Amino acid sequence: MAAIRRYAEELRAIGQALDAANVTGFELYTVPAGYFVKDLREEAPSFPSIVWNWLRGQRNSKIDFVTYGFESRDVEELCKRGRARRCNSGQIPQFREPSNVLRTIGAYIDGKDAELLELHKRPISVTVAYRDRSGREYREDRPISSFQNLFAELCGRRTRNTG
Question: What confidence tens digit (pLDDT) does each residue in 2-18 have?
């Protein structure tokens, strides 16, 4: 089994980058060099273009997906920037922000002492695939809201540790 990463901070940093790119639905995969993210927004031709192609008999329009790669060194740099920004923040974190959702799911994986394989985030649900220390793989389909209590617990711990 590969070395276990600490996912809470790494996924939070990736969540901030995805939020800046307005990515809300995505598939995230761990790879040896870091992470690979497929934005689920389809980069399709405009509606008039689709209609025009259909009228000309071209029924199969090409749809591409935007992808992002986050190498380990990039993730570390994003983490450093995030820590610097957090020290000056003083804001109350909002659970539904992508960075907080991903941080919470990362903490969930960390708590299981597991290796993240992939994560699929949709508007109200998430699929998480991971492997435990014994090599057994798990796949969980859950509503995002099912992580809200863990998020509140993490925020409470952070407040106690900084206060």
Answer: 545 789 999 998 998 89
Tell me which residue of 142, 120, 118, 141 sits closest to 131, measured CA to CA: 118
Query: Residues for the chain: how many in total?
Result: 163
DSSP H/E element including 82:
helix 72-87
**Domains of the chain by residue range:** 7-162
Handedness of CA 22, 66, 85, 145 (dihedral sign): positive
Q: Which two tokens stand for residue 144?
A: 């995002």
| Cβ–Cβ under 8 Å, residues 116 and 73 | no
- Residues 89-117 as b/e (b if ≥16 CB within 10 A, e otherwise) read eeeeeebeebbbbbbbbbbbbbeeebbbb
CB atoms within 10 A of CB 50: 14
The set of residues, in sequence order, having a beta carbon less than 8 Å from that of 15 and lying 6+ positions away, is 97, 98, 99, 100, 101, 102, 103
DSSP 135: S
Q: Model confidence over 116-125: pLDDT tens digits?
A: 999 999 999 9
